[in-house]
Amino acid sequence: MTTLIALGQIAVSILNSHSMSLELDEQLAGAIALQNDMLPSEARIAQIQAHCPLDLSSYCNQRDGIGGDIWGIEVTGPQRVMIYIADFTGHGVAAALNAARFHSFVHMIWQRTGRPEPLLRKLNQRLCEVLPTGQFATMFCATIDFVMETMEYASAGAPPQLYRASSQHPFEVISQSSLPLGILRDFPYESKAIPFHAGGALILYTDGLVETPKPPKSILTADRLREFLDKADQNKDADQLCQSLVGRLFAEPKTKAFDDVTLVIAKHTGSVRESIIDYEV
């Protein structure tokens, strides 16, 4: 017991030292920068948007600076993109490490699949091998084909997402009953294909968006999101819509997020472009 107390006193002394505090701040800043680098860069998004009729915007706020939320976009064919969002259990360093591992897995797997169902299945197998018991990730993945005007999606325990088929349709909630990744190695994930025409939109988010503040006091729910989006100005671009939603969530200065919050908005802007991006790079 004496040794334990002494170790505790030493730990407190170290953490209170100014030099150690500066070093920890520098390490945290570096970790935040590395995690931000895992997200799609503005240059990459601009490149994709230059070749596809896609308007894309996002908001990502890790509660502790680093965390378990991650999203990405990959070009899987001429005029076809895959968008995904994932959320690991926990917060801080442990969740961030899992997100980094997940990011590397996605980049190893997506080129061999290009479709949501096999991607989730292979990611699940990988994560079941490396995650400790009790740790897992929710994920939603969608492939948008602008030529066929379809969207194929699959969910791994993700919260209900929102979608509209075109500018003439209202938003609707889409969800699938499924297990998160990393729990059951051979879980049979399934994909579903739905129409995605000009003016269509996909709203992806992690549960922090609908659990701020904690339920039952949450400002937004899936249904409130749907109502908000249906009332929003149809002429708003993805960035304006994203800012409006985040502004609604944090309209009150005292509103505090108890979880990481990530939001991704993808809109179909119209006709297919003649030029196509090199999707093999």
Q: What would your notes on this structure say?
A:
- This protein has helices at residues 2-16, 18-37, 42-51, 92-113, 116-130, 222-231, 238-249, and strands at residues 54-61, 69-77, 80-88, 137-145, 150-156, 161-164, 172-174, 192-195, 201-205, 261-268.
- The model is unreliable at 1-12 (pLDDT under 50).
- It has 2 domains: 1-37; 42-268, Phosphatase 2c, domain 1, CATH 3.60.40.10.
- The strands form 2 sheets. It has a 5-stranded antiparallel sheet with strand order 1-10-9-6-7.
- α4 crosses α5 (116-130).
- β2 and β3 (80-88) form a beta hairpin.
- By secondary structure, the protein is of the alpha+beta class.
- The protein has 7 helices and 10 strands.
Strand order of the largest sheet: 1-10-9-6-7
CATH level 3 topology of the largest domain: Phosphatase 2c, domain 1
Query: Based on CA inertia axes, which overall geometry fits?
Result: globular
Report mean pLDDT, rounded to a whole number: 86
Q: Determine and state the CATH class of the largest domain.
A: Alpha Beta
Number of domains: 2
- Quickly give the CATH architecture of the largest domain: 4-Layer Sandwich
Q: What is the tally of helical segments?
A: 7
Q: At the fourth CATH level, what is the homologous superfamily of the largest domain?
A: PPM-type phosphatase domain
> Main β-sheet: number of strands, strand sense, barrel status?
5 strands, antiparallel
Q: What percentage of residues falls in helices of 4 or more residues?
A: 25-40%
Terminal CA distance = 58 Å
Could you give the order of the helices and strands? HHHEEEHHEEEEEEHHE
Number of strands: 10
